[in-house]
Amino acid sequence: MFLHIGENIAIQKKDIVTIIDKKTVDNSKDNRLFIETMIKSGLLRNKNEKDIKTYIITCDRKVDRKNRAYAQNYALYTSNISSTTLSNRKEINI
Questions:
Q1: How many other CB atoms sit within 10 Å of the CB of residue 66?
Q2: What is the Cα–Cα distance from 72 to 74, expressed in whole angstroms?
Q3: Deepest of 4, 34, 78, 87, by most Cβ within 10 A of its Cβ?
């Protein structure tokens, strides 16, 4: 299933690691540093910089069958939809 996070972007529910409210990030030095590090590392997938309400962190896990190893690709998305609304959408199976 997919979760629509606004601006015609949908991400797979199974890949979502966390949904974080922007106020929580702004109020915590560690969270703010973590998000800034992800952005500087080029992990931000959408360039929505106006009216950010939520950060969504995803991890796409792939298996390299030849080497029998896992590859994890992290990504950061921003959304102008509240974290509460996104969490409620994530829980509903449509």
A1: 6
A2: 6
A3: 78
| pTM metric for this prediction | 0.85
CB neighbours of 4 closer than 8 A, spacing ≥ 6?
A: 10, 89
Q: Token pair 């992990």 is at which residue?
A: 43
What's the distance, CA 43 to chain centroid? 10
pLDDT digits (tens, 9 = 90+) for 39-84: 999 999 988 777 899 999 999 888 777 777 777 889 999 999 999 9
Q: Are strands 54-64 and 16-21 parallel, antiparallel or unpaired?
A: antiparallel
pLDDT for the residue 93:
60
Q: Tokens 């950010």 belong to which residue? A: 52
